[in-house]
Structure of GntR family transcriptional regulator:
Amino acid sequence: MTQTVPSSPPPGKQMLSEQVHAQLRDAIMRGDHSPGAPLKPQDLAKAQGVSLAVVREALVRLVGEGLADRLPNRGFAVPSFSDRRWQEIAEARRTVEPVVLRMSIERGDVEWEARVRAAHHRLARTPAYAPEEGAHYTDAWAEAHRVFHRTLLEGCGNRPLLETFDRMWTASELARRWSAHRAPERDALAEHRMLEEAALAREADTAAAVLVRHLTLTAAALTEESAAGNEENTAAQAGEHSSG
């Protein structure tokens, strides 16, 4: 009896879909498509010079990654600042990560300490912004940032917990970029230094408290109250500059 093998997309089409997905993902991350902006398949297909099917496949992948929403009328859009998912992800991270960090501080060995120090050094030495990469922070800094936070938790030695961290980190990447853009006054370098110092000093209570505050500030930058406050500060600064 002959068994039917499921067909797979032609290599050319699959490669094209990968390229379009990567281009759209980078464009959203750079801020080329503003929060809440529609992602019209027809327009994107025309701009990319590809078929509608290729663009739709790329958009569905972006939905799965949390970088796009599928609307009730079958359209697509960039998530909005006010989307409740960002606060829910932040709540989940504030619940899980401090617990894992405590475990990591308790169980981590000297090799873990060395990795934490190296990861922090890399993060501190990596430029956060580059003109050619737009208004949001660079891909290099984003990766150094991820590695530092993950390394802090790796001392726990619990793979399922680290996999949970990986999923939450990916789901919140867009919110992180928006948050940094909307709260430029934050001293991220100092926040990360405090995290490193508390972890290596084996001060679990302090490290957990610093981490909770760090995560809370990121989520707060996306709330309406914070946005309004930032707009007022920007207007005030503009007034000061114009008068001085």
User: Anything to note?
Assistant: The two ends are 85 Å apart (CA to CA).
